Amino acid sequence: MNYLIMKWLQKFGFKSLIDLGCRSNSAGARLFEQRGKSRGFKPNDSYISKKFGYEWSIYPEIIPSHRDQFSGWISPFTLEAFKGKRFLDAGCGIGRNSLWPLEAGATSAYVFDFDQKTVQVAKNNLKNFPHCQVGFDSIYDVRFVNEFDIAFCIGVIHHLERPKEAVKKLLETVKPNGHLILWVYAREGNERFLLWFDPLRKFVTSHLPVWANLWMARGFTLLLKTYLLFPHRKRYLNLLKTRSFRHMEALVFDQLIPSIAHYWTRHEVLQLADGLPVEVEHLTHTNQLSWTLILKKKI
Ligand SMILES: C[S@@+](CC[C@H](N)C(=O)[O-])C[C@H]1O[C@@H](n2cnc3c(N)ncnc32)[C@H](O)[C@@H]1O
Questions:
Q1: Does 139 contact ligand 1 (Cβ within 6 A)?
Q2: Residue 174 falls within a domain, yes or no?
Q3: Number of structural domains the chain divides into
Q4: In CATH, what number is assigned to the domain containing residue 77?
Q5: Rounded to an integer, what is the distance from CA 235 to the centroid of its chain?
Q6: Residue nearest atom 4 of ligand 1, based on CA coordinates
Q7: Which run of H or of E encompasses 123?
Q8: Range of the domain at 152
Q9: How many CA atoms lie within 13 A of 140 on its CB side?
Q10: Which end of the chain lies in a sparser environment, N or C, as judged by fewer CB atoms within 10 Å?
Q11: Cα 267 to chain centroid, rounded
Q12: Does a structural domain hold residue 248?
């Protein structure tokens, strides 16, 4: 790919294709450097966050079904367990997970994301809770030690370049005897998805501009909604039937954009906690598609 093609791709928003080129040639590297200087742009976690930032600018609203969704992701932990507690929400997105623990009586919280626009959306969504501080931060740099009763990180670790380092860092923020809750994608239960759909994300959609993914998400959601009109035995498919078109569109869009998406086996998830001072309290195969790992920090 030469410099002019790169310029053209940049003009029409194909940033990810440029990044692909950047890894392998000097024209790409030159353009990348220029762009980096002018926009503070890096092809790493901050780039992934920017893509999610676009997602949250399209779907900024918190809806009642996010409550059930969050309760499912932290189960068997409960919302009631947050009462009187200080918590951390790492990679908070629009704040759709933090709202419910705050309503359940958490005393204070620090919730953060690595994208400025996303932080603004979360601030707006959580503005009725002055004891909740919303910040711009990266998981790798978060500077609290032994501070929170509960830290949770929902749907973030599997998109990171250094997941194990992130888990170690998050655990540092938790008080002894406190809990760290992680929700990540599972390999088990997603075998067919990984065979047919994930290559599409890896090799095509994650390299397309976000607006193209938005239209693809709408198309896929239409197909999925049609498929869901038929009777199904799988619990998760029946759960999806209850979701609105827009909620499902956001779920599909979320699958199309990330350049990193790990689907871990049970063993690999447990390895995230290897060597850390923790007791594994629960490891649940949530909806038979994902893992909820609940760690208790040892004294
Ligand atoms: C799939 S979204 C999940 C958001 C939220 N936890 C939820 O469930 O709604 C992943 C989020 O992680 C954020 N993120 C990515 N890398 C991060 C990092 N290094 N530190 C903090 N947040 C990060 C992204 O900006 C994005 O909002």
A1: yes
A2: yes
A3: 1
A4: 3.40.50.150
A5: 23
A6: 93
A7: helix 116-125
A8: 65-187+261-297
A9: 10
A10: C
A11: 21
A12: no
Q: For residue range 67-101, list pLDDT tens digits in order.
A: 999 999 999 999 999 999 999 999 999 999 999 99
Torsion of CA 42, 47, 49, 55, to 10 degrees: 150
Asked, for residue 108, whether it belongs to a domain, the answer is yes
What is the chain's pLDDT, residue by residue, as a tens digit (299 residues)? 444 444 444 444 444 444 433 333 333 333 333 333 333 334 466 677 777 877 888 889 999 999 999 999 999 999 999 999 999 999 999 999 999 999 999 999 999 999 999 999 999 999 999 999 999 999 999 999 999 999 999 999 999 999 999 999 999 999 999 999 999 999 999 999 999 889 999 999 999 998 999 999 999 999 999 999 988 888 888 888 988 999 899 999 989 999 899 999 999 999 999 999 999 999 999 999 999 999 999 98
Q: Which of 42, 47, 49 has most ligand 1 atoms within 8 Å of its beta carbon, as the pocket-test mutant? A: 49
Determine if the peptide bond prior to 130 is cis (ω within 30°): no
Cβ of residue 97 lying under 6 Å from some atom of ligand 1: yes
Q: Tell me, using a 6 A CB cutoff, whether residue 55 lines ligand 1.
A: no
Return the H-helix or E-strand segment holding 179: strand 174-185
Residue 43 near ligand 1, beta carbon < 6 Å = no
